[in-house]
């Protein structure tokens, strides 16, 4: 069954909404230039209110290994998502220090950029200067149904197109952020509908 990740949670209201619809993962964004960025103290507070059934993913862009290690060791995040130029050596160094799963984001434009061998999961997202959360899709035909490594599908997913995405590509997980927002804030009804549609598409 395809899993669901709702990224960019920033408030206690966001977490309460997630606890109702129960996605498999939520995302806390620590990337400096993101409009959804939160600090460590806020993330720790939110994680404390998050259902134990949901795993928290920390989203990073070219940040220090020590920052990531600290967040994992403090149980603020369960999964690491690298969205910058982190290379295979960086991933190996993380793996030597942490047991947490690692997702490596791969930007997709007209082609798919080089993929990671060492990451546990890949995440395919539309190549933009924002590095995610742009609300823009890419050409799904670029993704082969024979991707060997399990992957997260991101980039412009909404309640309007997620059923097609799941039934066409059968990704390990679908990743949504702006697609479940209204006026820049997480919308509980959209979140519930998104999760329900994914569940129905993978029955």
TrEMBL record:
EC number per UniProt: 5.3.1.24
**What is any Pfam family matched here?**
PRAI
Q: Can you tell me which residues the record assigns to a coiled coil?
A: none
Annotated signal sequence is none
Molecular functions per Gene Ontology: phosphoribosylanthranilate isomerase activity
Residue ranges constituting the N-(5'phosphoribosyl) anthranilate isomerase (PRAI) domain according to the UniProt record? 4-196
Q: Which InterPro entries match?
A: Aldolase_TIM, PRAI_dom, RibuloseP-bd_barrel, TrpF_fam
- Per its UniProt record, what SUPFAM superfamilies does this chain match? Ribulose-phoshate binding barrel (SSF51366)
Enzymatic class: isomerase
Q: In which pathway does it act?
A: Amino-acid biosynthesis; L-tryptophan biosynthesis; L-tryptophan from chorismate: step 3/5
Q: Gene3D superfamilies under this entry? A: Aldolase class I
Per the UniProt entry, what are the Gene Ontology biological process annotations, in alphabetical order? Answer: L-tryptophan biosynthetic process
Q: By its UniProt entry, which CDD domains does this protein fall under? A: PRAI
For this protein, what reaction is catalysed? N-(5-phospho-beta-D-ribosyl)anthranilate = 1-(2-carboxyphenylamino)-1-deoxy-D-ribulose 5-phosphate
Q: Which UniProt keywords apply?
A: Amino-acid biosynthesis, Aromatic amino acid biosynthesis, Isomerase, Tryptophan biosynthesis
Q: Tell me which domain of life the UniProt entry assigns to the organism this sequence originates from.
A: Bacteria
Q: Which family does it belong to?
A: Belongs to the TrpF family.
Show the PANTHER family listed in the entry.
Answer: N-(5'-PHOSPHORIBOSYL)ANTHRANILATE ISOMERASE
The name on file for this protein is: N-(5'-phosphoribosyl)anthranilate isomerase
Q: Which organism is it from?
A: Jeotgalibaca ciconiae
* Lineage, broadest ranks: Bacteria, Bacillati, Bacillota, Bacilli, Lactobacillales
